[in-house]
Structures are given as structure tokens and as C-alpha cells.
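Field guide to reading this record: the first block holds the primary sequence, the second block holds the structure written as C-alpha cells, and the final block holds curator observations. Each block starts with its own label. This record concerns Deoxyribose-phosphate aldolase, catalogued under organism Halorubrum sodomense.

BLOCK 1 — SEQUENCE
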Amino acid sequence: MNREEFAASIDHTVLGPETTPADVRTVLDEAADHGMNACIPPCYVSEAAEYENAPETIATVVGFPHGQHAPAVKRDEAVAAWEDGADEVDIVINVGRLKAGDDGAVADELADVVAAVPVPVKVIVETALLDDAEKRRACEAAVAADADMVKTSTGFADGGATVPDVELMSEYLPVKASGGVASYAEATAMLDAGAVRIGASAGVDIVEGYPE
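BLOCK 2 — STRUCTURE
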């Protein structure tokens, strides 16, 4: 993977609760200048889509960060994000439903979102809250929903991406490793484990760590 391909695998991210429009513009500039994608809060997508230095791909989040929105709200949020200009949507599963064994409801909710938008949907399974069997069931629900990718974490639970989790999840769908990835070495470890995308607020440091 050359530097350009490596940079294109990074979703440079800003999703904190205090994120300002200026923070988003900074991330958009950094993403565009380094050849990365950007992942930003849904409230700023329309502005980002019209920003003169926006990167080629803008992702946003749905049901974030806990996944407990009503299914119809998640669907409408995804549609609104797409209509505002989002190129990809990252949706948080309902972890409580999954833990309760209601896998059908989880899959149905995801399928509703996938069917509602003509852009790639990544399913955030929040691995830090799940055991391995639950991670597999979450990935199976994503497959059943015809999602495009599974993603490890929101970054708001007590834990993020790990090599074992990426290896497990990559058995089902392409993986976005997100949460705690802060260096070129850590990103490379995730890619070597089977990830195809990295979500990180440290995108600039990661890309600039690429060996010359």
C-alpha cells in the first residue's frame, strides 16, 4: 500500500460533544490536504458538503453514540445526513437489544437504514461492550441487513479497536477499526489484521508517520 492508498484508508474524525464548526473545518482541511476522508457530526454535514476544501469522502454518524434512538429516528437521521451530502453513514447498533437476544430487531433496524440511503452504511458494534459471541451476532446482523462494513467502536465506550476484534469481525464484512488508533504503527497493525479503514482523530499523525 503506497502513501496515497494508505491515506485514503483513514477517516480523519472529530465527533466530540464540544465540536464546533471551526473544529470541523480544521478536520476537513487536514483530511483534504493529506488525502484522507473525514468523519464529522451530522449537524455539520450540509456545511461540510459545501466547504471549498472538503475531502472527497465525508462520513457521518447515526444513532450516536449509544445506539438507543428509536428505529424510525435512526432511519430519518440517515436519510437527512445523505440529503445533506454525506457520502457514508456509520450507525450504532442497539447494544441493549443485542444483549437481550433480540437479534432480529437489531438486523431489521439496520436493514431499514441500509434500504433508506443509497450510500455505504458501516455498522458500529461497540466491541468494548460485547463478548466474542455477541460480536459475532452483531456482525451477523450487519450481514443480514446488507450493510457494507462493520466498525469496532464509537470511541465513547471504555475501549476501542483491538487486533483480535478486527480479525474476528473481518470474517464477516470489511472492517473499520476505530477507537484509540493514534499512530502509524497502530494503524498498520489494524490493517494487517484485516481492517480496510481506520477511524481516528489522530489522522494527521498517522499519515505523517508513513515511512518516506
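BLOCK 3 — OBSERVATIONS
The mean pLDDT is 98.
Residues 122 and 149 are 5 Å apart (CA to CA).
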